[in-house]
Amino acid sequence: xxxxxxxxxxxxxxxxxxxxxxxxxxxxxxxxxxxxxxxxxxxxxxxxxxxxxxxxxxxxxxxxxxxxxxxxxxxxxxxxxxxxxxxxxxxxxxxxxxxxxxxxxxxxxxxxxxxxxxxxxxxxxxxxxxxxxxxxxxxxxxxxxxxxxxxxxxxxxxxxxxxxxxxxxxxxxxxxxxxxxxxxxxxxxxxxxxxxxxxxxxxxxxxxxxxxxxxxxxxxxxxxxxxxxxxxxxxxxxxxxxxxxxxxxxxxxxxxxxxxxxxxxxxxxxxxxxxxxxxxxxxxxxxxxxxxxxxxxxxxx
Length: 301
Known about the structure:
This protein has 301 residues and is mainly beta. Helices cover 9% and strands 42% of the residues. The radius of gyration is 21 Å and the shape is globular.
């Protein structure tokens, strides 16, 4: 009797691999509580983001003004329905006017706030900012092991610039060679000094080590694009699905989330000149209608 060996077809292997990768990605993203700011609880006349302490929690439920709000202006639009909106009020010289949010409870601003696994190095997310009075905002995070700081301490992103379009940011820990971490904290303030202005900050889709993109689009196979070679030096070849229209926008961000190149794709455009960009890690994003997809690009010479 000959025992038949069960084989797995290449297509099935590919499907299994994709499912595993998707599960790994979801696990990594899910480490940050309510990272997409989809879940909110009523608080008097306002709301608070689940898993986060915010300025609203220090106010009476009967207050008429709350600095932190749920917004339907979110990004990427295909991922979730809401974002975090913070607006300070300079006229209220108390917690009622401070725009702050951090993971965990009141003590989460300078203590470990949520568990992490693996070896996160970079915090990604998207933001928009409308400063007043010369104000700036700050987002910072830290890693811990057994209650002690690892990874070189606080990592911070600060900006004074007006940013009217959703923009990717990234914050890498100073020492990526740390052994391991078991917890972390994340703090978001729409001001960075006192006195502050009536500034407005939007934040959405926080994640570790890779930015959140149009997951729904990738899952159903629409709008996929490819870059090659990668790493590249002077020119990259671009291949994209016909469902991406010729008037789509291609953005290139550097590793800190700064937009360094912007193109409106033309019919049959397949070559992008990157000769003027420095060596390093970049993210290439295509915005086509409601779809938003991105890929990492390495420039090496």
